[in-house]
Here is the input.
Amino acid sequence: MSTLDERVPCARDMRSCAAAFVARVTARNRLPLDYSVASLRIVDFLIDGLRKGGADRERVLEPLFGLGAYVGEVLVRRAGAVWMDFDANQCACFGQPVGVRMPDGRVWNPLGKVHNRFDVGGPGESLQIFYLTLHGRARRAVA
Here is the structure.
């Protein structure tokens, strides 16, 4: 387990990955990562901080993975999504092994969306806006 790809868990492990990430980043900081839609703005700020700090992508793969797991878990808890393992074609398309399936059957790639925010930045890649404009989510928040 020496590279991130070898440690990338399957769909059934993503909730615990998100929880472990939140525990790590909130241990010393009082970040309001409470799985709310509003907390996705904090995710945007965290990624922007990594970008402004000049970190290259290889050095931030682990935090980006944690942020992606967190975003996916917000989709699971608030939009009614479920974690899913991508098949070979989906992995090739999305560049990630896992994603989420919305109640209407649409598939989304929160890990890739986090990478896009890091690579491109700007309001067009906002994770909070991503959620707010997301097609296929449940009409009512899921506990």
